[in-house]
Amino acid sequence: MAGHSKWANIKHRKGRQDEKKQKIFSKLIRELTVASKLGGSEVADNPRLRLALDKALGANMPKDTIERAIARGSGDNDSGNLEEISYEGYGPNGVAVFIEAMSDNKNRTVAEIRHAFSKAGGSLGTGGSVGYLFKKKGQIIVRESNQEKLLDLLISEGIEDIESSDEELTIIYTDPNSIHNTKNALLKESIEVIETEIIMDSSQSIKLNSEETEKVLNLIESLEDLDDVQNVFSNAEFSLEGIN
Length: 244
What we know:
CATH architecture of the largest domain: 2-Layer Sandwich
Radius of gyration: 18 Å
Oligomer: single chain
Number of strands: 10
Largest sheet: 4 strands, antiparallel
Structural class: alpha+beta
Distance between the termini: 19 Å
């Protein structure tokens, strides 16, 4: 286990978010638009929109930009024909990759994703080829290392698992439908919530050395750089030494 952790994956993702602020804004605008289009513009009645709004505010997105994105979706004005699509494939070393995308042109999107896989030595798979390895979960990162305290607080919320790091941070995994109640329970106890996400968590993982980590990260970063790609998940456990 030395040198491998889901925390390495999170460290990489957070670093990428800091580097790509404008692209992050573009992806958040799409999420706000689609969330309001599918569930309405009332944040209190739309958990997905509430989560997207939290992320947008956390990224310091201007209020008027947020309001325009929500209005575009709820009014179905200029929201185009954005569709949610998922893609699955294999990266280097047989790593399973699950991609969430939003697109108004599926032919363009699949061509770009296939090219990214091919360039990295991987392959785009068919639907279901790796999807069975992933399960949707709520993920909350908090600044609190006392697992017993967290378990006592959240046992009634039906949390699925917790995992601590060596930096006084803890990941809490929940049912996606419980993520907001869990977050509110934490905030009521003045526990700092660093991040709240809906993720696709893998049931099996592949540990990579530093060289393998670099190859898989190159694929993930190529996919994340595509305009239509919202999120990329894998079952890789990155080597800490392989992350710059």
